[in-house]
């Protein structure tokens, strides 16, 4: 496929032609893959909670094991990318992801929860290398003035993967699984859930192998289109850049909020105070069709997990719209508006609750949509460190997805799922402040 995007030149003024468009298309396929893999975490949280009889906090270790990899691996990944280049780094990343899938297969067959956590950490380590290499590359393949647009467009395909993941995961992982107080999981449902995990990661392993082949044969196209490394000073220089540090803090808060909402969403919707005793969601044409009513009044955990696809689907739609808006409007103003609205929606869910809160919670994804790519590119533009080091620091900050869900899970255990939404509300308000600060600062370098 050939994706056409605005802008006539990159770097030293070479025209954007077929080679650059094809290179951008190849990179974008990787965004789809890691989006699909990451969103499987949401139904997996509900599955392990039932299969291994865990508390909310214990189940959230699934998200923590996955996103902790960003903390431990991002700076080594930045060093690898600086030393061997983006193309070889991406191939290394795909190899690590395949190893993580194999570990998940063993974990599902032996039914060992700590091994599940190890497999997810390994898988996420590969994705971390992939992000450190691919995010700046997608931003750089074209006119620097359109970097916000390009990264948002790539993230749209990432969101398409995150839309599919919860539906597939709910179907494979959650048949017969219930986690409400007093509910128990029968051995047949437990065995089916473990078999579903095995099936999912077997197919993912095959998909990753195909992507590695696809990327290997497309490596020359990317090498021909990619601009050279953007800066000097090494990894240490990033800690002396105010904007690199601010951008990392913003990514920490954004990913933490997004993941905390996503991993709790199925449990939240399944709660009796939201949709657990209501059939209202089945009256919404596309949503009800996707959830697929089992004929029992109320929304089961499996049905709720399928609805989570619309949280991530909102991000996909928002990024598609954002790609158009960012070609014409101020990135900082759009970010400020999106974060303020997301904060207000979280407060509504916490303060009002009820059936309507379920619909509002799902719609938060629409406003999450542009946050990551815009924060990323605004930071690259303003950082005084190299793009490799800055990207490494921001990917390290994705560890927010490991830490904040634990806080939300703990609060949910004490005060309920709705009240726990106050944590992401505070994160979005801080991000609104970041947007205003970025609007007052002049870019130092093109993203």
UniProtKB/TrEMBL annotation:
Can you name the source organism?
Sphingomonas spermidinifaciens
Keyword terms, alphabetized: Cell membrane, Membrane, Transmembrane, Transmembrane helix
Keyword Phosphoprotein listed? The answer is no
The record ties this protein, via InterPro entries, to: MFS, MFS_trans_sf, MFS_TsgA-like
Lineage here is: Bacteria, Pseudomonadati, Pseudomonadota, Alphaproteobacteria, Sphingomonadales
Query: What's the protein name?
Result: MFS transporter
Against Gene3D superfamilies, the record matches this protein to:
MFS general substrate transporter like domains
The topology of this chain with respect to the membrane is: Multi-pass membrane protein
Task: Supply one GO CC term from the record.
Answer: plasma membrane
């Amino acid at each position: 496929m050939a994706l056409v995007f605005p802008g006539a030149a990159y770097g030293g003024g070479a025209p954007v032609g077929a080679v650059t468009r094809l290179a951008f298309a190849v990179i974008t396929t990787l965004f789809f893959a890691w989006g699909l893999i990451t969103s499987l975490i949401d139904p997996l949280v509900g599955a392990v909670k039932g299969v291994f009889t865990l508390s909310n906090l214990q189940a959230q270790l699934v998200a923590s094991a996955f996103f902790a990899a960003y903390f431990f691996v991002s700076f080594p990944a930045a060093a690898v990318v600086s030393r061997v280049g983006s193309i070889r780094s991406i191939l290394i990343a795909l190899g690590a992801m395949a190893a993580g899938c194999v570990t998940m297969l063993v974990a599902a067959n032996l039914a060992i929860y700590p091994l599940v956590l190890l497999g997810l950490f390994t898988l996420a380590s590969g994705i971390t290398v992939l992000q450190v290499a691919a995010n700046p590359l997608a931003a750089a393949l074209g006119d620097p003035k359109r970097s916000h647009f390009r990264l948002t467009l790539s993230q749209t395909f990432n969101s398409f993967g995150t839309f599919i993941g919860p539906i597939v995961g709910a179907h494979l992982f959650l048949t017969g699984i219930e986690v409400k107080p007093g509910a128990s999981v029968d051995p047949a449902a437990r065995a089916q859930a473990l078999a579903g995990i095995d099936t999912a990661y077997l197919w993912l392993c095959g998909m990753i192998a195909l992507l590695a082949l696809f990327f290997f044969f497309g490596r020359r196209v990317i090498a021909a289109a990619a601009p050279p490394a953007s800066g000097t000073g090494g990894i240490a220089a990033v800690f002396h850049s105010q904007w690199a540090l601010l951008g990392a803090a913003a990514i920490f808060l954004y990913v933490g909020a997004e993941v905390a909402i996503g991993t709790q969403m199925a449990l939240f919707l399944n709660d009796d105070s939201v949709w657990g005793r209501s059939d209202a969601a089945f009256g919404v044409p596309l949503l009800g069709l996707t959830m697929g009513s089992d004929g029992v009044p109320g929304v089961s955990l499996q049905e709720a997990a399928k609805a989570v696809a619309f949280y991530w689907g909102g991000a996909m739609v928002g990024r598609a719209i954002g790609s158009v808006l960012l070609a014409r409007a101020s990135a900082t103003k759009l970010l400020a508006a999106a974060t303020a609205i997301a904060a207000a929606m979280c407060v509504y869910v916490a303060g009002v609750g009820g059936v309507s809160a379920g619909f509002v919670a799902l719609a938060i994804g629409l406003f999450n949509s542009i946050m990551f790519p815009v924060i990323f590119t605004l930071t690259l533009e303003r950082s005084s460190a190299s793009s490799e080091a800055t990207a490494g620091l921001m990917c390290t900050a994705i560890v927010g997805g490991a830490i904040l869900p634990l806080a939300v899970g703990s609060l949910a255990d004490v005060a309920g799922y709705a009240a726990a939404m106050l944590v992401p509300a505070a994160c979005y308000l801080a991000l609104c402040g970041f947007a205003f600060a970025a609007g007052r600062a002049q870019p130092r370098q093109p993203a």
